[in-house]
Amino acid sequence: MRNKALIHSKDMYEVIKLRNKLLYFGFEPEVLNEGNINCEVSDISLLVFDVESKRDYMIDILSKILKECKADFINDIPYIIVISSDKSGETEQIVRKIGVNNFLLKPLENNELDIVLIGILLKI
Fold this sequence. Notes:
By secondary structure, the chain is α/β, with parallel strands linked by helices. Helices cover 40% and strands 22% of the residues.
């Protein structure tokens, strides 16, 4: 079972919260540091990206990771969650075209992320 989770946020407090939550649910979080991945893409089962807007450079990084997964013939493309405070809908439209599974708006309410993570664990 692949259980590595790749996470990114420009807010280090958010990174710590995401990391702790993923550890609680049994994932091994790897923090994406300035575009560098510290593990094999084939080991990643989950991507959690906190993006600021539709112009966030992390959307391009996310797209490149997915293209690499497809190019490496990985059968199970990682599950993708994007978290954003952009309520305009533009960021959601862009990331959905890339292949994002869940788009969550900040502030997260009612354990939204927990519910999504439980659903992922039931699938993998």
